[in-house]
Design goal:
Strand content: 5-15%
Largest sheet: 6 strands, antiparallel
Number of strands: 19
Structural class: alpha+beta
Number of helices: 23
CATH class of one domain: Mainly Alpha
CATH architecture of one domain: Up-down Bundle
């Protein structure tokens, strides 16, 4: 979808230029960080942390390193000796790069001191390396250089640039509320601090290691607190504005007791942070979920937010900890766990901008089913490894087999239950109604019948015709509106929220609507062809009746104009005209049809010496009648007047035509002998009463006989007028 108006285009053009500038600044900042890492002192060999040995196992010796020719892969370094003769015994603990491997305050202090000692030795011009066999080799120290920067550092820098660019876009975006913008930028800053801390701590020996971990912890607090604060205000505010920012400093200071040496167990501090974060997030998300239960758009926003969090968190946990739990790898998974966290941040931004919000229902179900499958595999793997004492590879293979045999069939079953009305099933449900609506003989215009199809298909809260042409089925307003074409291609329909406002429209609804439009147009073409054929046949019948029967009646009327049969012949001619008029398909204005009724009643009343009063509601000017409606109403009026003149012997006759709740209401009142004088309604009307009731029933109405205030009879007829009112 595009933006309308030149001003909006200019605004977004300026935003794009500023984003590119901000992205360039982010690249330059990360380039400076990488330069610092490349110039960091380095031993010249690649070592790894192995708690099973006492020293540092050598796993790689670059060919351009000063150590080449002095050491072989597989040897173990046990000590370093500086240029001044200072000897430092190395241990696996010196290679720790993650705070998760530091459990106590004393271990923390030792780690920081060992890092500083190693860095001091590497900053000398030469270094002596002592191996496990007692051999001692000397070579010149060097720097990491661009070629030997670990891939984790490059990966972290790329994540920082990504988040920096997205944060700049959020900061410059004109369509985001200020508070939401501030929280999104805070989350981006927190993520950047985490990654920046990990970039520096990825180098095994780096002097400000303690400060880098503090930077990491600070970023963790800002990121976690920012996420909680965001859920407190989006999509609806749960707390006052001044309280919504409280989680950021609260979670940022979570490590302060440990840093102040008030707590010795860092693992307890980490667990407290995770527990508090999960509990706060669960409470805030639950409140948002409950408050959005009657607002499908807000519910979709909540789902998108939770979808981003759940997907990113589960993926990050699996990538960071499953390799350690299964023994299939080291802690390098933590580096790549930054990717789903970065994607979560991007998901936040897209969700707040309501990108493809209408598809969140399908993604929501898919994600939860995927998470459940992943949890089943991990739990099964750990259970098999613990209970049966299996190897990591064997337990993982068995867990995958169990998940495949049990989980996939269950998932398919639940998927069908959750989705419910699939597009093909919905098509089968709506299709019969569509055909019946198009071919219904209700007299309603085709456009109204087309609207009825969409009311049955989606039960929209609002359905409005559009003057603007809708070329194809289109989702609008973030899935709250569905635009569908008209059958004749002129204009369209605008459908509000479906199913009484309980959800948004989805891609499946668009597909279903496309099928209905195609079938509707084909059915309309068939209906029009049938109507054209029927119209031609009716025209032939009308001509035959006019040329043959009409001519014979006209001749007979002329011959018998002075006999007692003249009136009956005249009535027969009127009946013939009324019958032939039903063979035309065009609707006629009720006022025009009523004019014909009035002319006939005036003539009959004058012949009977009865005074006529005809009263007609002005609202009838906008009503149209189909030929079928006009014929039945004409015969009802004629029968009611005939009964009054023939059986009531009145001096006055009143005819009233009006509207009542969308129905036609007309009354024929006389001051004659009344119902009793004619042996009641049945005696006064005879078979005519049954005919009137049947015709009124065909039109969706009824007939009542009452005693009039003038002492005579009143016939009250009320019939529905489906499709008769314009609009």
């Amino acid at each position: 979808m595009g933006f309308r108006g030149g001003n909006m285009g200019m605004v977004w053009g300026n935003v794009v230029h500023k984003m590119l500038l901000a992205l360039l600044v982010g690249v330059l900042v990360q380039a400076a960080v990488l330069i610092q890492v490349a110039n960091h002192p380095w031993l010249g060999v690649e070592v790894e942390r192995d708690p099973a040995v006492q020293g540092w196992p050598v796993v790689g010796v670059p060919g351009d390193s000063p150590a080449a020719g002095h050491v072989q892969v597989g040897e173990q370094i046990v000590a370093l000796v500086g240029a001044q003769g200072t000897r430092l015994t190395v241990t696996p603990a010196m290679l720790v790069t993650e705070e998760a491997d530091v459990h106590t305050r004393s271990a923390w202090n030792h780690l920081v001191a060992d890092k500083e000692a190693v860095d001091t030795l590497l900053r000398g011009q030469t270094i002596a390396v002592v191996f496990e066999d007692g051999r001692q080799e000397h070579w010149a120290t060097t720097v990491v250089g661009w070629r030997h920067i670990p891939f984790e550092v490059w990966f972290g820098a790329a994540m920082c640039v990504l988040v920096w660019g997205v944060s700049a876009g959020v900061l410059l975006s004109p369509g985001v509320a200020p508070q939401i913008r501030t929280l999104l930028v805070a989350i981006g800053v927190g993520f950047a601090l985490i990654v920046a801390g990990y970039i520096h701590s990825s180098v095994p020996a780096y002097t400000p290691f303690g400060w880098m971990l503090l930077l990491n912890w600070l970023g963790t607090g800002v990121l976690g607190g920012g996420m909680i604060a965001l859920v407190l205000v989006y999509p609806g505010r749960l707390v006052p504005l001044h309280w919504s920012y409280a989680p950021i400093p609260l979670f940022t200071l979570h490590f302060s007791p440990f840093m102040a040496q008030g707590v010795d167990n860092i693992a307890w501090v980490n667990q407290l942070f995770i527990l508090g974060f999960c509990l706060a997030l669960a409470v805030a998300a639950t409140l948002q979920w409950r408050r959005s239960r009657r607002d499908p758009l807000r519910r979709a926003m909540v789902k998108w937010l939770l979808l981003s969090m759940v997907l990113a968190t589960v993926t990050a946990v699996i990538m960071a900890f499953v390799p350690k739990w299964t023994g299939m790898g080291s802690g390098t998974g933590v580096t790549y766990a930054m990717l789903p966290i970065a994607l979560m941040y991007v998901g936040f931004v897209l969700g707040i901008h309501r990108y493809r919000l209408f598809e969140v229902e399908r993604w929501w179900l898919n994600t939860w089913l995927w998470v459940a499958g992943g949890v089943l595999v991990v739990v099964g793997d750990l259970a098999l490894a613990a209970w049966l004492n299996l190897s990591a590879t064997t337990s993982l293979a068995l867990a995958l087999l169990i998940a495949g045999w049990l989980w996939f069939p269950l998932r398919q079953h639940w998927w069908g239950r959750l989705l419910g009305d699939r597009p093909d099933q919905a098509t089968q449900r709506v299709l019969p109604g569509l055909i019946d609506s198009i071919f219904a003989s209700t007299g309603a215009p085709l456009a109204e019948r087309w609207e009825g199809v969409w009311r049955r298909a989606f039960e929209p809260v609002v359905l409005e015709p559009m003057a603007e042409v809708v070329p194809q089925v289109t989702l609008a307003s973030d899935g709250t509106t569905l635009l569908v074409p008209a059958l004749d291609g002129a204009g369209g329909l605008k459908l509000g929220l479906p199913h009484g406002g309980h959800r948004l429209y989805s891609r499946q609804d668009v597909d279903l609507a496309g099928v209905l439009v195609g079938l509707g147009r084909q059915a309309a073409q068939v209906w029009q062809a049938r109507e054209e054929g029927a119209r031609a046949e009716r025209g032939r019948i009308v001509r035959d009746l006019h040329d043959d029967v009409g001519a014979e009646l006209a001749t007979l009327q002329h011959r018998l104009r002075h006999t007692e049969h003249a009136e009956r012949i005249e009535q027969t001619i009127r009946t013939l005209r009324a019958v032939t008029s039903t063979l035309h398909t065009q609707a006629a204005p009720l006022a025009e049809v009523a004019g014909g009724w009035r002319a006939e009643v005036v003539e009959r009343c004058e012949a009977a010496g009865v005074a006529l009063t005809w009263r007609q509601d002005q609202r009838l000017e906008g009503v149209f009648l189909s030929p079928h409606q006009a014929l039945n109403l004409c015969r009802i009026v004629r029968e009611a007047v005939s009964n009054a003149l023939r059986h009531g012997h009145p001096a006055n006759l009143w005819v009233d035509l009006g509207m009542d709740d969308g129905s036609l209401l007309f009354q024929v009142t006389d001051d004659g002998c009344g119902l009793a004088g004619g042996n009641g309604a049945q005696g006064r009307c005879g078979h005519g009463r049954l005919n009137m009731e049947q015709r009124a029933t065909e039109l969706g109405g009824g007939v009542e006989w009452q005693t009039s205030p003038e002492g005579g009879c009143r016939v009250v007829v009320k019939v529905a007028l489906p499709g008769a009112m314009p609009g």
